[in-house]
Amino acid sequence: HATWVCLCLFAIAFTYVTVQVSGRPFFQWYTLLARHSSKMFAWTAIYGFALSLLPGTIIRLLRQLAYRDMTPKSLIWACTIRKQIGVISLYFLSLHVCMMLLIFGGEYFGFLIDEGHMEWNDEASMLAAVLSTSLFYITGIASLPSVGREMNKAQFELVFGPVVWSALTLGVMHVMFLGVPSWVSSPRSPYSWARSMPPITLMASVFPLFVMFIKFLQSCHASVLKIKKWATSRHQFSSIHASEHLFVIDDVAADV
């Protein structure tokens, strides 16, 4: 099932990228083999990683809101394949990295280099890409059964909590640092907005941003519940302490 899900994601990315870039000026079909296939691999990877994190986040949010287990069977099924989706997404990420290492240069990506150096947003994008990739590989290694069995609960929660969410955030930042200037440019570029279709970087960011928004809501609600629990326990402690103090006063008064 995980394989079919990822193939569907790749089919979506392949179709959109092919239709969009084929409307660009001076488009050559052979560029789909390397230059634009790299974009398809990246899109599939980031959607796959986001999809692997969504079911668990929704389940936590539902349990927090309902205060009991009301998990739909579809979400339980999604959780059973999320690890496989993450591993396959790591494969697509590796394809993107390898492809970019092979073709990155002035012929295809000269627009990123101005007078021998990049703009700040392009530099930031490259840094975010490297950090995101390294963190995703850490989660991939931790997903190996031989490694996962040796991890304790704290290590597991660290890797599949802050580490994997940081990887997704950095991955989205990598795309947005490259894409945002073309999203807001006026007039719109005939390359980025070919066929009047939204830029590929914009479409590749929408779903991961949605998943991150759901995670933000879940984290905020969890924090509110923790604060309420702390406030309640503190109030109960204060009440008990006050009652014991009254008993002491009564005992002293009785002795007098």
Structure description:
The protein has 256 residues and is an all-alpha fold. It has helices at residues 2-21, 35-66, 73-103, 106-109, 120-142, 145-148, 153-184, 200-255; strands spanning 113-114, 117-118. It has a two-stranded antiparallel sheet. A hairpin with a 2-residue loop joins strand 1 and strand 2. Helix 1 crosses helix 2, helix 2 (35-66) runs antiparallel to helix 3 (73-103) and helix 2 packs parallel to helix 8.
Structural class: mainly alpha
Radius of gyration: 25 Å
- β content, as a range? under 5%
What letter string, H or E per element, gives the SSE order? Answer: HHHHEEHHHH
- Would you report the number of β strands? 2
Shape descriptor reads elongated
Strand order of the largest sheet: 1-2
Condensed summary:
By secondary structure, the chain is an all-alpha fold.
Write the layout of secondary structure elements.
Layout: H1 2-21, H2 35-66, H3 73-103, H4 106-109, E1 113-114, E2 117-118, H5 120-142, H6 145-148, H7 153-184, H8 200-255
Antiparallel strand pairs: 1-2
Structure characteristics:
2% strand, 2 strands, two-stranded antiparallel sheet, mainly alpha, 8 helices, 256 residues
